Amino acid sequence: MTFQNFGLQQEILDALSEKGYQTPTAVQEKSIPVLMQGEKDFIGLAQTGTGKTAAFGLPLLHLVNLNDRSPQALIICPTRELCLQITREITDFAAKLNHFQIVAVYGGASIGDQIKQIRRGVQVVVATPGRLIDLIERKAINLGAIKYVVLDEADEMLNMGFQEDIEFVLQQTPNRDSIWLFSATMPPPIRKVSKQYMEKPFEVTIGKVNTTNVNIDHQFCFTTAPHRYETLKRIIDFNPGMYGLIFTRTKADAQSITENLVREGYDVDALHGDLSQPQRDKVMSAFRSKALQVLVATDVAARGIDVTGITHVINYELPDDPEIYTHRSGRTGRAGATGICISIVTSRETRRQRDVEQVNQIRMHRFEIPSGKDVCRKQFYYFIDKLHDADISHGDYETYLPVLQERFADMSKEELVQRVAALEFDRFLKYYENAEDLNPRKEDRGIRKDIRGIKRPEGVSGSGDYVRLFVNLGTKDGFYKASFLQYILDKSDLSKAVLGKIDMKDLKSIIEIDKGAAKQMLQSLDGKLYKGRKIRMNPA
Ligand code: AMP
To answer: Is residue 443 in a domain?
Structure first.
């Protein structure tokens, strides 16, 4: 297969050979013939580095009308770096074409210059979502003649919160012939967009599709090594409906944790390498049938286990090899369900935790270990719901009703309910009556100042590692959450990782931001102008 086979113009072929491209890559071979037809919606599951820029760039050059200087193709991508990279590549491919014009529009650069370039006339626009919306709102760009919309790194755009913006842009291109979507993963929200806006898309998958699962909520808590087991118990007790898998690093840990939990009344068993095959089968069958609420396993023993419906994966300790983390967490959040992966971390393990985040490109959110009172409250509400919704339609309770009535004739409904609750609760109330706080004390926390992304549990205010900033910009200023995010990050030159929750109102917003980054944000925005109006930003 050569590039000649595709039927591209000679000028493009010449540019390609000057660039040193001899044979098409796999994604190019599969995509170019389909995309050159121009009519068909398209999904390409491919990672960066596979040559996907040429896979969509070359067909676009083939399709656009060079005698027409209105934008005909729109490429939307998540970051300014990618925006510039795509523009450079396509400019190279078009080096020998007369009258070809392309513009890169992205935040953090002069919008005036970009508007001038658009006014001069361009066939292809490469844009980041925030800046594009800005241009649409200023009526500085006309998308009426756009025939092809390319969504590059769609999953990344989604992670960055651009879903609404993308949908808005798709609605602004009513005369398009096709959408070409490229993504490394296919999480449900992208499927949803494709279902809504695309018609029977032609789908191409290249190589191994990235397995990072966006349905998993990654969480961690800090504790001290002597409290590790107690912390595990508290997590289990705080999640009464849990159907969970606990991972340990050693067989000995799996065994001793299981023995302790069994002794304390939990439905749990262990799976590790010392078990014979029949023993393993027995444990697995009990777990599958949910006779066990929790299974404690080592990595090796858990290999190949496929159980649906697991609500929680708990890392009693993080794995030595950060890549193992994905294999563990991937046991939950399957088949479109959501799941939670919780890691118990001590101050000595913060390095390992960061490696896990980096290697797997995930963000773990910290939660405070629940207090004894929290556990009791949670168990109580779980119990009363269970009592209230108990199914009595199947048993012959009528037969026993007279006996029950007689036996409890002198007992009020309140007293009866209390006694039922006591039966279920005694264990928790007694156990947690004087339970200690398992969160490390403040002075222990000093050593972990470098940990980022600390999320406070809902409803708790005050001393997280975030501070809150007020700003007099809101939705009335024409911002969507995503475009607002892009705007403040571009202005301050900060990354999204420093931000927490953003609460937007009509005329103001509250931004949660990492303590260490707040000053830079304040200096970059406070007193500056937005659409001629002075921005006021101060600690909330
Ligand atoms: P991309 O996935 O588009 O970022 O491309 C990855 C790298 O491969 C870029 O540096 C491209 O210039 C290069 N590349 C793409 N297609 C080809 C090809 N057919 N032959 C040689 N290099 C290529």
So the answer is: no
